[in-house]
Structure formats: C-alpha cells, structure tokens
Design a protein that fits this description.
The protein is an alpha/beta fold and 325 residues long.
Length: 325
Amino acid sequence: MLRKIVCIALPGMAHFEFGTITEVFGIDRTDMGGPGFEFHVVAADPGPVPTKHGLKLYVDEPLSVAEDADLVAIPAYLWEGFDDRVLDVIRRAAARGAWVLSVCSGAFYLAEAGILDGKRATTHWMYTDRLADRYPAIDVDPDVLFVEQGNIVTGAGTAAGIDAALHIVRKELGAGAANVIARRMVIPPQRDGGQAQYIGTPVPEVRTDSFAEVIDWMLEHLAEDLTIEQLSRRALMSTRTFARRFRSETGATPAAWLNRQRIIRAQQLLEETTLGLEQIAQRTGFGSAAVMRHHFVKVLQTSPLAYRRTFGATVPAGEEELQSA
C-alpha cells in the first residue's frame, strides 16, 4: 500500500518540480474521498536548504526517515555534485522494492546511484542527450512524459512530474484515487502524447465552442461506434481538418483519444460497480470483453479482471471462472 511518501530536498533543487511532488502527495484530500498520505520532506543536512532561485527551504527531518518509505521522490536540481548519503538512500529504497520517483533532472541522481543501468528512463528533453552521454548503460527515451521500469519511475520536465506521480497513485490505489487528486488540481488525470507534443508548439489561446461541444459529445457517447466522418460532420469540418485540429488540441488522434477515454471509463466501472465485463465493454464502446482485455493489457499491462481484483469492491460471481476459461 502506498502510504509513506518521502521527498528528498536537494541543494539547488527547482521550486516547481519540488512543488509537483508536494502537491500530489502532501495535501490531505480525504474529505473528497481521496487518499491520505504520510508525507515527509527530508534532507541530508537538516536545516536551511538553498534552492535554485535563491530561496531557502527549512527542513527539519533527516534522511533516516526515508528508510521505510513506500515512495522516495527526487525533484529536479542543479547537478552540482552528488551526496553519497542520498545515493545510498536511493539504492536501498530501490533494492527493497519501494517506489523511486524522479522529476526532470532528478533522473541524474537515480542514474548516479546506478539503479537505472540497463533500464529505460527519461528526463527533460533539454537534458536527454547529456543523460545518455554520461550514463551509456541507460536507454534514454526523449519522447515520453514518464517511464516506469519496475518500481522506478522517471518523469520528464516540469508538469510531467505530475503525470508520473499520478501514474504511481493509479497503479497502487486505482483510477478513482488519481482522479480525485487530478480534479482538485484542475488537471487531466491522464495525458496522451509525449514530450515532443509540448516542444515548440504554442498553446491555443481558446478552443472553439464547436470543437469543445464535439469533445463533450464524444464523452457522452463512448458506447457508440464513433467514426471520424461522423465527428467531423458534427464539428462542421472536413475529415482531414478535423483530424489535424483534434491532434493539435489534444495531442492524440481521435481514435487514440477515444481509446484512452474508454479505458478510463472502464476503470471507473470496474472500481465502482459490479457490472459484468461484457456489460462494461458494451457501455464503454469496446464491444466485447475480449477487445476490452486486449486494450487493457496493451495500455495498462494488466487485464480488466486483475484490475477489478486489485481496485474493485467485489468480483461478480462466475467472473473468475469466465476469465480463466
């Protein structure tokens, strides 16, 4: 169970990336049905910790607090050398199976600790070449928002740290818990696309009302077979224009976006209802339990039944036998 979270404050760390960790894990949202975490900020040398922009953060807890943490998080920092005491904490956390999360350039600390050797990892796109050159044993992926490798998650730049943190919440506590946090933060619970989506691409000033209405309509009709021709007609656009605009504004093709929304809806139904798998597949537009299972395994690396067994209240009678048949 994901309960005790420890963020290590590093000299020269960036405020925003530190803030993403504290925002996801450090706020009590149990009043809205969200998860409650035991959140700690620790430092190798308790006391004032200088940050990237000249401010100092006073930290009164030592590194020893992290020894039994369920998750150890490393924010972005100005890589001015590595503290062996922090490296040892990271190694021990990874070895005992705790989650280890880095945000942005925090991946360099994980790399220096050696826990990324032979694994995929990411960091901010500005630093991926440096990470790959300095640590050739790591398979650096510059085109993703985050990478999960076992119990280690590396997030790309700034806001992608939120994506990475919510991914861990979702894996451990289910989509419902992640959705509560995302709703309070006024952000999408899951973003599609990769870092390239956010590099050199201006943010639209405003989304047209007709386009917003189409997206809302798509969410209301997930159970139906929605074709791009049908959607483009609703938006009063040609199919080519609609596809281009949709990808520009959402970061995904209409088909990929619909698939993600259907998975999210299916996760909610698996968590909150006792509907059978075939019923859920029909209600979410997958058509059949077999098709839904294919997409769950492809995207979430688990089956709907395994997901329900982990996060749902109950498994309907006979469902175990149906899936094992």
